[in-house]
Write a structure and sequence with these properties.
299 residues, alpha/beta, 9-stranded mixed β-sheet, 4-stranded mixed β-sheet, 11 helices, 13 strands
């Protein structure tokens, strides 16, 4: 089983072509929906009084939701952002922490023997508190975002010292490491203790650094991109879900996990919010995976 901890959000996303207000989003939401195609997934997070019942039904149908806490005295985490015309650059308009600000996470007792744990781009202090509750996970991976690097950098570094792997996008890797070269960024992150690092590069795919391996995996090419929100979290869900499914962490499994991560990220961007993930089937995923493999095969 895979447990995912992070934000369950109401997102407002603005593009030059459309605006969607208070739609289901959040790092834990995207990652859990993505991973649920590969393995049994449990989600841990907090929502407020404004979390729609229809959104809760969506999550209940796809995963174990006993780890969701509802705080009727506050409102959901809300992220408001605007993408530019080419949908590759995003500006944060507003980040309202709301109920996650003082959240003290504690998983249900049924979760504590979970073998695989993904700490999404949440408050690093909360991530570390949650990690203390788990008995002995085989694999623990974390992510982070600009907000926490700017305001809790020391805590982000402390968190990375406690996990087996880090998934992070290229802009935030450079910000954290104070270094432009991504190979040097990965080396710095792994010097903190993680066995591997995945640096997400958006429309340019991802880089896996594992032991002595550097594995570059291009993104799946798309002719329609609607909303890039959640692409990185969907990547992480596919990546973690595949490893949990295989129950091992060999070099080949890690490479395949990156490919499945790219496939899931490519699906996520083809509609607003989580809509594309909700309309997927396992055969859709496998067909795209096979197409991806045929595109990058040569010789």
């Amino acid at each position: 089983m895979l447990a995912v901890f992070g934000t369950i959000a109401l997102d407002t996303t603005r593009t030059p072509f459309a605006i969607q207000s208070k739609i289901l989003g959040g790092a834990a939401t995207f990652a859990s929906l993505s991973s649920s195609f590969f393995t049994q997934t449990s989600i841990i997070g907090i929502v407020g009084s404004d979390f729609p019942a229809e959104y809760r039904k969506i999550l209940d149908k796809r995963m174990d939701t006993r780890g969701i806490v509802r705080n009727d005295n506050g409102r959901c985490f809300h992220y408001d952002s605007t993408f530019d015309y080419d949908l590759s650059h995003r500006t944060t308009n507003k980040t309202e922490l709301n109920v996650i600000a003082d959240f003290n996470p504690a998983p249900p007792s049924e979760y504590i023997d979970t073998d695989y744990l993904y700490l999404a781009n949440n408050d690093p202090v909360q991530n570390m508190k949650l990690l203390e509750h788990f008995s002995n996970p085989k694999l623990t991976v974390c992510d982070t975002i600009e907000y926490w690097i700017l305001y809790r950098r020391d805590e982000v570094i402390k968190m990375m010292r406690q996990v087996n792997g880090v998934i992070i996008n290229q802009e935030e890797a450079r910000l954290l490491c104070k270094e432009h070269n991504l190979i040097k960024c990965a080396k710095y992150i792994m010097s903190l203790g993680p066995e591997f690092t995945v640096i997400k590069k958006g429309e340019n795919g991802a880089l896996l650094f594992f032991e002595d391996l550097i594995f570059p995996a291009p993104a799946y090419p798309l002719d329609v991109v609607v909303d890039p929100t959640g692409a990185g979290d969907s990547f992480a869900g596919g990546f973690m879900g595949y490893i949990a499914q295989q129950k091992k962490k060999t070099t080949n499994v890690m490479k395949e996990a990156v490919i499945y991560g790219n496939v899931m990220g490519a699906f996520a961007v083809q509609d607003f919010g989580v809509s594309a993930l909700l309309s997927l089937s396992k055969s859709d995923i496998q067909n795209r995976y096979e197409q991806y493999r045929s595109m990058i095969s040569f010789g």
